[in-house]
Write a structure and sequence with these properties.
By secondary structure, the chain is α/β, with parallel strands linked by helices. It has helices at residues 47-54, 77-82, 100-104, 122-135, 152-166, 182-197, 209-215, 238-246, and strands spanning 9-18, 21-31, 36-41, 62-67, 70-72, 85-89, 111-112, 119-120, 170-174, 201-205, 218-223, 226-232. 32% of the residues lie in helices and 27% in strands. It has a 6-stranded mixed β-sheet, with helices on both faces. A 4-stranded antiparallel β-sheet has the order 2-1-4-5, covered by helices on one side. A two-stranded antiparallel sheet has the order 7-8. Bound molecules: adenosine-5'-triphosphate (ATP) and magnesium ion.
């Protein structure tokens, strides 16, 4: 750790195997609070496995995870969410046939009373969803629209808004703009900047080096299940990052 503020998240020497495949061979990195931290690396480098360990989807075989300087261990995605870690995936889990507000409250419905007299607080959920979406200036036509009518960028904005709704502390994103066009990517990047300005820490996996240069303050390079380099983004160029990802450079 450098300085008095603990890292928002830190992983030390994480290992994870799937049968004979060693997806993580002792990976270490951290994310400073209030920053965008990027992870880059080739296909199969172990990026998604690492963040799935943070998100409670995988239990690491060994190694440590610290959140705000405290050791944590998540038995399930729900446990990670309770600790304030939200994750946005490329192939995001929005329910197409539900509305924007229903998606935002999916599995976390606001209710009143106790069973069998429990009632859903629909108006309140709609109100909160609208407040969230308009507060984030998300380019979404309205919270009562069905998600299947939204563009890819709007969907991703809903997924990010939902994550921020449930954790304004720490949001992990696995290639959030991989499926998006240029304009939509720019909109999602704007949204990411806004949530970071509001104090959320973001850890993002991206194959888009220009995006990493635009968005992040810190960048980690993964190769073969390890983190082989980490730098302040302002200290590297996109070309250097490409070389590090492919292993063409001499360090490591
Ligand atoms: N659930 C799983 N079962 C078996 N092997 C897995 C599983 N998840 C990942 N792997 C393997 O672990 C290695 C790392 O995969 P991972 O998905 O973490 O890579 P990645 O860096 O996210 O790649 P990409 O850029 O293609 O998304 C790969 O060899 C992959 O095949
Ligand atoms: Mg991946």
């Amino acid at each position: 750790m450098d300085g008095a503020t603990p890292h928002k998240i830190e992983v030390r020497d994480l290992t994870k195997s799937f049968g004979s495949v060693e997806a993580l061979k002792g990976a270490s990195l951290y994310a400073r609070p209030g920053e965008v931290t990027a992870i880059v690396g080739d296909n199969g480098a172990g990026k998604s496995t690492l963040i799935k360990c943070l998100a409670g989807y995988h239990a690491p075989d060994s190694g440590e995870v610290l959140m705000d300087g405290e050791p944590v261990r998540f038995a399930s995605p729900l446990a990670a969410r309770h600790a304030g870690i939200e994750t946005v995936y490329q192939d995001l889990a929005l329910a197409d046939q539900l509305t924007v507000w229903q998606n935002i409250f999916l599995n976390r419905e606001l209710t009143r009373g106790v069973p069998p007299f429990r009632t859903s607080r629909r108006a309140e959920m709609r109100r909160q969803a609208h407040e969230l979406v308009s507060g984030l200036a998300v380019n979404v036509p309205g919270v009562t629209k069905t998600v299947k009518r939204l563009s890819g960028g709007q969907r991703q904005a809903v997924a990010i808004a939902r994550a921020v709704m449930w954790s304004n502390q720490f949001v992990i994103m696995d290639e959030p703009t991989a499926a998006l066009g240029l304009r939509e990517t720019a909109q999602v990047e704007d949204l990411i900047r806004r949530i970071v300005d509001a104090g959320t820490t973001v850890l993002i996996i991206s194959h888009n080096f220009e995006q990493v240069m635009r968005l992040s303050q810190q960048v980690w390079v993964m190769r073969g299940g390890r983190v082989v380099n980490g730098e302040r983004t302002s200290d590297v160029t996109g070309v250097e990052l490409v070389a590090q990802v492919t292993g063409a450079s001499t360090f490591a």
